[in-house]
UniProtKB/TrEMBL annotation:
Protein origin, superkingdom: Bacteria
This protein's name: SDR family oxidoreductase
Length: 251
């Protein structure tokens, strides 16, 4: 079985590619560095030739609704067309409740994810699985580094049920090997604010960081609107277990 992972050099793309290879799947690791540009379409047809499955783990770093919508919907359209030509199914990685207007009204990035889901649904119908997860523990690391000034790290309040990205990858791999429902929602074991995750992360690393919480993105994000009401999967790795496994690991 040949599977193309688009965005394979990113956080989730690497986990998914590694785990698929461990299951003896032939993986094509597609990203701009390997000559595949999902936004322009360059290299997609060649990469997908003979593939049975495509996993979309693409990302763009932006809070602009226009940039996010353009990126995700253009890439989804190009991948859907190439998948259709190759006769392949698509697994698209998305975010729980990002398509809910109450959640994404002030979050341009989430509007981009909603647009991505809509394009895939429109073009692929029953050849699509959308795996939505809540926020990953890793996101607290990414955001608190992006919004850092010396020892001060700014972190938006996000009440969620975070999970280890590696656990999310296991769910995606199962959907690749045995496609299930059209939409699968995945959450972590406990409800937590990502501010708490960031504080625990820096403490576990023994690094002095002052994590300053901010209100950003609207009330729904702070008040649990990111947590799915009826999750299909609740993952096992707790924050403490993840910290023990990853705090000493290099970036
Ligand atoms: N972080 C979370 O908590 C969370 C939760 C749920 C869902 N998600 C979703 O998970 C997805 C993956 O996130 P991530 O953090 O793993 O991403 P990431 O680490 O930022 O990696 C993004 C990947 O996309 C590739 N890429 C970017 N532009 C490209 C283009 N034009 N053509 C081809 N490849 C391109 C990058 O490689 P090159 O730069 O080499 O091209 C890289 O491999 C996102 O869609 C995100 O919304 C994230």
């Amino acid at each position: 079985m040949k599977v193309v992972v688009v965005g394979a050099s990113g956080t989730m793309g690497k986990y998914v590619s590694d785990r698929l290879e461990q299951r003896d799947v032939e993986v094509v690791r597609a990203h701009r560095g390997s000559g595949v540009d999902a936004q322009s379409g360059t290299g997609l047809a060649d990469a997908l030739a003979g593939a049975e499955m495509v996993v979309d783990c693409l990302n763009v770093t932006t809070q602009s609704a226009r940039t996010a919508k353009t990126f995700f919907s253009t890439a989804a359209g190009n991948i859907a067309d190439a998948a259709t030509a190759a006769g392949a199914r698509v697994v698209c990685l998305s975010i729980c409740n990002a398509a809910d207007p109450a959640v994404n009204r002030r979050m341009g990035y989430y509007q981009g994810k909603a647009a991505q889901e809509a394009v895939y649904r429109d073009r692929l119908d029953d050849r699509l699985t959308i795996v939505r997860t809540t926020q990953w523990f890793e996101l607290a690391d990414t955001v608190s580094k992006q919004l850092a000034l010396g020892p001060v790290a700014v972190m938006p309040h996000m009440m969620t049920a975070p999970l280890a990205a590696a656990d999310g990858a296991e769910v995606i791999v199962e959907q690749v090997l045995q496609p299930g429902p059209a939409v699968l929602e995945v959450r972590g074991p406990r409800q937590l604010d990502l501010v708490e995750v960031a504080r625990a992360l820096w403490a576990a690393r023994g690094e002095h960081r002052i994590v300053v919480p901010i209100r950003f993105g609207g009330a729904a994000m702070r008040n649990g609107g990111l947590i799915p009401d009826h999750p299909d999967v609740t993952t096992g790795t707790t924050l403490d277990q993840w910290l023990t496994a990853s705090a000493g690991a290099p970036d």
